[in-house]
Design a protein that fits this description.
Number of strands: 4
Order of helices and strands: EEEEH
Largest sheet: 4 strands, antiparallel
Strand content: 35-45%
Oligomer: single chain
Structural class: alpha+beta
CATH class: Mainly Beta
Radius of gyration: 18 Å
Low-confidence stretches: none
């Protein structure tokens, strides 16, 4: 069985500028991240605290590596 590699962090939604969300990450809120607001849960408003999750997708990673290696092999043939 594959090991799941995952981490979480706290994020404060500082503001939304047009269609860009500005998040302040971590307990100290010192790391600013900007991303399309469409990735936030529906009806999320400025001032809320979110939990961000990051997970390594092992199978997709291996598939991507394989595709890239095939392209490299094709180019360097």
């Amino acid at each position: 069985m594959a090991r799941i590699r995952e981490s979480h962090c706290r994020a404060f939604l500082d503001r939304i500028e047009g269609d860009i969300a500005v998040l302040l990450l971590g307990d100290e809120e010192q790391n600013k991240v900007m991303l399309p607001a469409r990735y936030l849960p529906k009806d999320t408003r400025e001032g809320v605290v979110l939990t961000c999750s990051f997970r390594v997708e092992e199978e997709e990673t291996e598939s991507a590596r394989s595709r890239v290696q095939s392209l490299i092999d094709e180019l360097t043939g």
